[in-house]
Amino acid sequence: MAVARNRRRVLWHRTGRLRDGLVDVDSARIAGAMSELRHRGHATLRDRLHRVRSAMVLALQAGLAAALAWLAAHELLGNPEPVFAPISAVGTLAASVGQRMRRTVELILGVAIGVLIGDVLIYFLGTGPWQLALVVILAIVISTFLGGSAAVVIQAAATAVLIATLSPSTQNLEIPRFVDAFVGGGIALLVTAVLLPLNPLRVINRAARPALDLLADQLDRAAQGIRDRNRDLCQGALDRLRSNHEELTAFTDAIEGAKETITISPARWHRRDELAHYAEAAAPVDRAMRNSGTLIRRAVTMIEDGEPVPDPLPDAIGHLAESVRLLRHEFAVGAEPQDSRERSLRAVSEAGRAYTQGVGFSGSVVVAQVRTTASDLMVASGLEQEEANRLIRASFGEQENAGRPAPPRHAPPPPS
């Protein structure tokens, strides 16, 4: 009873304070927490819907390929139970875009190994649990010894299991299994090449966005960290940039998938030139990621050592981040990336101004990495390496010549 009276007294005092016009701190905290939970719920829902939209084309391709594979095997080839044909079709489409032709070959190779091992062992040893175990072990060992990929190994083992378990009750299983593998893989390629081909540039744009956004965001964080001399902010940007494997893998896989689509789909042949531009951008974007990591790592050291930080230095890194965003946008709309190139040169010019004002050892490395990263971005935009380097050198030296008369033509250029 005493405890209950104490709780009522606390509640009475709290409501009394609210009536006196004071703020209920607990309610404010609860409201903030609930608002954050609602925001997270909405963000999660948006992410899920985005994933569903991204997978919709694949789902349609897989459904159509499964249906056509079953019809082809059942109606055209007379297979009364064409189970493996739709399975092979879906298995081919389940492979990463860009590996579907290879997956079809792997399906057929795995089936061949599994059928061979299963038939030979069952003929000499018969059927039973230990024979099944031996068939699976040998299928995996032999396919691995022959240099098969994981898909070949799995397909060989699965086929060996089917042969070992179904052959006693189902006659002539081997030939239909081969035929189904051919039919399923062929139908899957037909769907992706002719009936429902992907738009290769849309696939690449969707895959390039996370990689380029990651680079731009971490450069922005690094610029803010240098401006505020916040070592932890720069270190966080460096750690996040180092974990870029997923984004870069998605980008390179999308390029390989687009190459495959353009190779086998006549409806997409007119996109070859645009795809070539994207394919050439993948390597310099990867280099820009690595050079930006070096830039941010030296920025952390610069802050730790208390080196001078001229105002133009964080501005230069911020311009690099904006150059990445402009490159992503101009790629997406199919425009010549002039704005991205201009912003990269502006970053180099600001870095040169910072160098003139005075930096320490690590600061000079940051300046050098701004130049290198800007060069990578300009190559990604479609310029030749020599042309990009020439423009970088010219922009870096502009601040040294500002307000001075132009040197005679025979004079050597100022050191950069």
Automatic annotation (TrEMBL):
<keyword id="KW-0812">Transmembrane</keyword>
<feature type="domain" description="Integral membrane bound transporter">
    <location>
        <begin position="68"/>
        <end position="191"/>
    </location>
</feature>
<feature type="compositionally biased region" description="Pro residues">
    <location>
        <begin position="405"/>
        <end position="416"/>
    </location>
</feature>
<feature type="transmembrane region" description="Helical">
    <location>
        <begin position="132"/>
        <end position="158"/>
    </location>
</feature>
<feature type="transmembrane region" description="Helical">
    <location>
        <begin position="107"/>
        <end position="125"/>
    </location>
</feature>
<keyword id="KW-1003">Cell membrane</keyword>
<keyword id="KW-0472">Membrane</keyword>
<feature type="transmembrane region" description="Helical">
    <location>
        <begin position="55"/>
        <end position="73"/>
    </location>
</feature>
<dbReference type="GO" id="GO:0005886">
    <property type="term" value="C:plasma membrane"/>
</dbReference>
<dbReference type="InterPro" id="IPR049453">
    <property type="entry name" value="Memb_transporter_dom"/>
</dbReference>
<dbReference type="Pfam" id="PF13515">
    <property type="entry name" value="FUSC_2"/>
</dbReference>
<protein>
    <submittedName>
        <fullName>Uncharacterized membrane protein YgaE (UPF0421/DUF939 family)</fullName>
    </submittedName>
</protein>
<keyword id="KW-1133">Transmembrane helix</keyword>
<feature type="region of interest" description="Disordered">
    <location>
        <begin position="393"/>
        <end position="416"/>
    </location>
</feature>
<feature type="transmembrane region" description="Helical">
    <location>
        <begin position="178"/>
        <end position="198"/>
    </location>
</feature>
<comment type="similarity">
    <text>Belongs to the YccS/YhfK family.</text>
</comment>
